[in-house]
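<context>
A single protein, sequence plus fold
<sample>
Here is the protein in question:
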Amino acid sequence: MPGRNHLFIPGPTNIPERIRRAMDVPLEDHRRADYPQTVLPLFEDLKTVFGTKDGKVFIFSASGTGGWEAAISNTLSPGDRVLNARFGHFSHLWGELCKRLGLDTHIEQVEWGYGVPLERYREILAADTAHTIKAVLVTHNETATGVTSSIPAVRAILDELKHPALLYVDGVSAIGCIKFQMDEWGVDLAVAGSQKGFMLPTGLGIVCASQKALNARHTAQLKRYYFDFEDMLKSNAAGWFPYTPAMTLIHGLRESVNMLLEEGLTNVYARHYRYAEATRRAVKAWGLPLCAKDPALYSDTVSTVVVPAGIDSNLVVNLAYERYNLSLGMGLADVAGKVFRIGHLGDLNELMLLGALSGVEMALQDAGVEVTLGSGVAAAQAWLRESHPARKAV
């Protein structure tokens, strides 16, 4: 098919030309004398993206799942109690990882479309007067359902109860896209991935650990080797890695962080909100609901759209790809066949988004969903014109 594929899944995302060019370099010696000049400033600038001054950033050649495992294995011991909530596919997988690592994992079941169950977390933590729960897990942005949970609200519960458990946050589809303040929110371990807000290929799991989390490594007994913080700390201090790093991806990460900081993180967050709101207005114009049950939970990186009864959402996704060269996200696990997902994060502009929304409309109609062609695009256009930053200067 002529032209290019239009990538509107919630990761991997589109790669900007600046980042593509930054990665297009000959392979090089990762032990060369001047390599630390690249790595050390990158560690510091990543701390700005995570919103921390005192935290320590680790870059693993892995996916976000590797970041999960690094965060867990360096801070906990076999049999430790973990509190997690299952309200989407990725919160489910994080809990499964903890089980496989031999942790006593309590999974609080939540209807998909809602976020972290704050009152249940409060009840469970309040009942844990012996402080046997060592870890509280929160998926900040649940990509399967398009739900964003409040991290400050979870921290407030821990502080109110004076509970010492570490707070772990899956920020894979949040960090670099929506507001994240590690120090201000009292997050102990935060995990990001290169293929979302950092606009890179999959291949880097980025973890940021608080000083409290770093101290926990001294007593943590879970087995680890490749993901060992200790080895990384020793090598990273001088600008090296304990094993061969993904050199081209690190060059891309350097350029990605440059782009984020040049735009300004506040502007990055505002841009993501603007495109998310345009998408939400399009969905409303189509007469379709979002999977997220409350506007307060709406994600600014992915909108998960519920199709009418009797329609297979996989058909919508397949038609969009086969007929219009548009890649949308399928429904996963509990919502498979019931929803499709529009990713609106990373490198994106108005016309890219409008083109995707046009393709969604055509695929919906082809799949038998009664939508008026142009209705969602028009709603999004109106919002994008109304909210354009240039209008404020007129």
Observations:
- Residues 265-286 form the longest helix (22 residues).
- The chain has two domains: 6-12+264-393, 17-262.
- The radius of gyration is 21 Å.
